[in-house]
């Protein structure tokens, strides 16, 4: 559309200049930028230093922009200028800066200039309210289109207010826009009548002003409010036609109307109501001129057939063929005023409101930590971190990135190519999905198949509201509440609810919510719960949230905010099924794929081993292999392929095995003959193998209240009452019948009575770690190369393997650290020296339960990560600091408190084996070097054959009676 813009303004209100006012924050700049807000280039780029100049990146190279008193490749040569009376601007990097004006209410600047080029638009003067490149408050003087042009903007869009007599006149539409009409208007009416839009094409003579032509139109479009309904009147060459909206406008609230008229039909839609269509033949386009567009009234008194009723209210925005129109850049009557929409804005989280040509008449300027139309949700930025495509959530003094389904990594920096997805798993309190807002709640249906894993805690399934106000009184939700599925609806004045029968965890349910003009129905499998609609329908103003909320969004107190826990699949809205593989149709966070898993329950075979004695004797054991295969289908939250889970089933009537008594002090090497099974009778039952990781049990009589009551503290204590774990372990009750022994370092077994030296290979279970003195890995100078080497194997995708940070009790946030760990199956090496962390990631996944060799180097700011035979991954920390100031001890396999001790960089400890840890070429004796640790054990995969035979003999003594 041929809108014009006038740069010269008559009277402009003043605004604050960009004099710095500190508001409780300070910008820490990367080395390449400088200034109070890091708004300009510094003297550093491409590892070059321009001294007193500015370093500019030019493609793959660099260029120093020198001040008047310096020259040279790096501005290193001082220049003594003679007396200067004139300054020459000779390149695209020429500039001068002066202190900010004290006030623009009383401001004058003068200059003598001699331009050498006026063909190209060039800057003469610029000042703004801030350094935001999108700043709306600015003043400039420029050479534009061969003239010197002054331009001023106060930052606010003009949002016209009408009192029944005013008209806003906009430029004519193009022929294409007029004959293929697509206009959207947002308005807030004070009454139920008035013209809001009109334009026409009239026969004309050459040279006539289209605004002054009074001949009858041959094409016209007009929209008006008539007794609450919107009437669209048009003539495309065949006479006047009209269509009427079936729904009415809502006075004193924002409404949106869309008008479409093309070669085949006319369409009118008001808000989210049904679209009204009317077919017609192709438009008759005759010779003539397109007249202006009139908003808010009628400027054609020559036609007595027309109504002249003016509009009362506000028109906040207009788009033509999808492009917004600046309502403040056009001609208007002097007494027209702008509406202050910010008086009733919903800008959240300390954001700033600005009156604007938007559907609600304002826009919110968000802090960097928040995003969304109303700054209602967390953005990708917090704690000076960037979560890329994810959401950055503050967790106490640290941070956590909530990644979408198609990204992973500590900062959501690693793209994920998902296989075909048919089900989504919600696994944490930050899990969520969002879908576009429903068009209408008068005719709305959503269905989903879901399998809840927890129904004890109140959890969200579905939520939509009229706006993002956490106190919003108009909202609709479906939740798991008090063990049932509950539908809730509030229209701002009253609330209604539908509650299902109780549901159970681990069961698949088909849930369908259906609303029409008169009835709301909730279907749970074959059960239907129905209620007649008695409350008013509200216009949806938020996205449709499924399974949870993005961080930052709050909801009313009567709506559960905790995310759903379980799997959801086959979501369908108004008959259209959501394609989980097309992630352009929804947003998500902290969700994963749910896959189907076969659970096979066989009976294990007991294969006992005898310990060596001076005279080896053999006792024959009779065993029977009974394989009971019972297949069930279960959904689990995982990103892995289909796996088979085997659970052990024990026959309670099986006879207890008779074990050979052995002197446990004997350590001589003898070959041990394994027991040979003999044929078994039908009555004989399988004997179950007990590994060192199994939990001992406590027999409870039927008279014991702990056998029937819940897990009270007394019952838990009873599990450990007569089953102490000896001097080398601590009894930890699991429930009233099971406990486990948490062993001290170098001890193992169900009773922690086996001494197991670790030496060069250690096994970690996610709750284990070894602590090594910081003296073993000193950081004395930034010039010395530091090398860490080790082997590892794991099947787990996440976990910290090697960590060195600060002293106990000191926060690691913002401090130096040295970290090696797994994230989503890849090895991550990172370190912080004070100016910005370096990060290196392995090319392939390493959670394949195979042995991998790792070599890590750091020298100053540069780092190298090499895994197996992969290409080296190199990295460089930001800033100029090159010394690692991490004086805390070294932790291998884990840390005592993952979130606290790593500042949120890791979420889990390592599970697997680590061997041959070498610091600067010296392999550590993990047992002799460790100063502390917990639950670390030797790793069977990396012990010598002799140690394996000794270990094998000790296992003969580990069997206990069941």
From TrEMBL:
<keyword id="KW-0732">Signal</keyword>
<dbReference type="InterPro" id="IPR050372">
    <property type="entry name" value="Neurexin-related_CASP"/>
</dbReference>
<dbReference type="InterPro" id="IPR001791">
    <property type="entry name" value="Laminin_G"/>
</dbReference>
<dbReference type="InterPro" id="IPR013320">
    <property type="entry name" value="ConA-like_dom_sf"/>
</dbReference>
<feature type="disulfide bond">
    <location>
        <begin position="743"/>
        <end position="752"/>
    </location>
</feature>
<keyword id="KW-1015">Disulfide bond</keyword>
<feature type="domain" description="Laminin G">
    <location>
        <begin position="422"/>
        <end position="594"/>
    </location>
</feature>
<dbReference type="InterPro" id="IPR000742">
    <property type="entry name" value="EGF"/>
</dbReference>
<feature type="domain" description="Laminin G">
    <location>
        <begin position="157"/>
        <end position="342"/>
    </location>
</feature>
<feature type="domain" description="EGF-like">
    <location>
        <begin position="338"/>
        <end position="376"/>
    </location>
</feature>
<feature type="disulfide bond">
    <location>
        <begin position="366"/>
        <end position="375"/>
    </location>
</feature>
<dbReference type="Pfam" id="PF02210">
    <property type="entry name" value="Laminin_G_2"/>
</dbReference>
<dbReference type="Pfam" id="PF00054">
    <property type="entry name" value="Laminin_G_1"/>
</dbReference>
<feature type="compositionally biased region" description="Acidic residues">
    <location>
        <begin position="681"/>
        <end position="691"/>
    </location>
</feature>
<feature type="disulfide bond">
    <location>
        <begin position="347"/>
        <end position="364"/>
    </location>
</feature>
<keyword id="KW-0245">EGF-like domain</keyword>
<feature type="signal peptide">
    <location>
        <begin position="1"/>
        <end position="24"/>
    </location>
</feature>
<feature type="disulfide bond">
    <location>
        <begin position="567"/>
        <end position="594"/>
    </location>
</feature>
<feature type="domain" description="Laminin G">
    <location>
        <begin position="759"/>
        <end position="939"/>
    </location>
</feature>
<feature type="domain" description="EGF-like">
    <location>
        <begin position="716"/>
        <end position="753"/>
    </location>
</feature>
<dbReference type="InterPro" id="IPR009030">
    <property type="entry name" value="Growth_fac_rcpt_cys_sf"/>
</dbReference>
<feature type="region of interest" description="Disordered">
    <location>
        <begin position="662"/>
        <end position="703"/>
    </location>
</feature>
<protein>
    <recommendedName>
        <fullName>Basement membrane-specific heparan sulfate proteoglycan core protein</fullName>
    </recommendedName>
</protein>
<dbReference type="GO" id="GO:0016020">
    <property type="term" value="C:membrane"/>
</dbReference>
